[in-house]
Amino acid sequence: MTTPSSNTQSNAQGSFGATLQQARKNKKVSIDEAAAELFILKRHLQALENENFSDLPQPAFARGFAINYAKYLGLDPIKIASSFDAAYPNELKVQASNSTDTPLRPMGTLQRDTHNRIRFNPLLILAVIGVIVLAVFLFRMVSNASKEHNEEPVSTVEDISASEQAQGAAISNTSGIGSSGSALNLGDANASEAALVVTVTDTANVTITDATGNDLMTDAQTSGSYNLSGTPPFNVQIDNIDNVSLMLNQETVALDTYATDKKASFELAP
């Protein structure tokens, strides 16, 4: 009576090698990619799929390869291990048991194929983090410096509007400068006319007088847009800047730079 071959035995048990191969193909993974992921030699994976047990290392190692391969492919490792045990030839088991006293041979799992794998250097990662932290620190320094630089002119204008405007008005009335100039803008009495556009969104008291003494707008004004013209500089008084916007020669005047408690009193020239 002849003894069934190893391939016949494996087919009787369901051919675990074919199951592994089909699962790998379904996962669309090449044998090289699987070997790189599992750190198992390509020839050992091929031997498992082809059930070439003579090309595999000792049964314990080969069985472990089969289990790890099954887990990687999403198969039931217990069923694969059972099929492997049933298909493994008895003569190879005897040879393996007789060679247990010999020194262990490298099974190939230490020869990792890292050609397609990315390794991260801890020092490189720390260096990248350091560069990012430094960049953030420098960005904040530049932003703060720019913010402080932009705030300086605003504070200067506020100081002038709060204190020196009143002094300029007093000087204008006592020193003979008159309507030709002020503490903020020294105008020319012979200057050409300038255009003003006053937009009132809600009732507000607005008084505007030009350099010649003409009253261009006085007292309470209703909502609307008013086009005015006269000789600069203009003396402007507004009781609530939230309800008024002003343009001089089609350029918007920032009323909040002249206001204190929403009230503004200043002279304006191009």
UniProtKB/TrEMBL annotation:
<dbReference type="Pfam" id="PF13464">
    <property type="entry name" value="RodZ_C"/>
</dbReference>
<dbReference type="Pfam" id="PF13413">
    <property type="entry name" value="HTH_25"/>
</dbReference>
<dbReference type="InterPro" id="IPR001387">
    <property type="entry name" value="Cro/C1-type_HTH"/>
</dbReference>
<dbReference type="InterPro" id="IPR010982">
    <property type="entry name" value="Lambda_DNA-bd_dom_sf"/>
</dbReference>
<feature type="domain" description="Cytoskeleton protein RodZ-like C-terminal">
    <location>
        <begin position="197"/>
        <end position="266"/>
    </location>
</feature>
<keyword id="KW-0812">Transmembrane</keyword>
<keyword id="KW-1133">Transmembrane helix</keyword>
<keyword id="KW-0472">Membrane</keyword>
<feature type="transmembrane region" description="Helical">
    <location>
        <begin position="120"/>
        <end position="142"/>
    </location>
</feature>
<dbReference type="InterPro" id="IPR050400">
    <property type="entry name" value="Bact_Cytoskel_RodZ"/>
</dbReference>
<protein>
    <submittedName>
        <fullName>Transcriptional regulator</fullName>
    </submittedName>
</protein>
<dbReference type="InterPro" id="IPR025194">
    <property type="entry name" value="RodZ-like_C"/>
</dbReference>
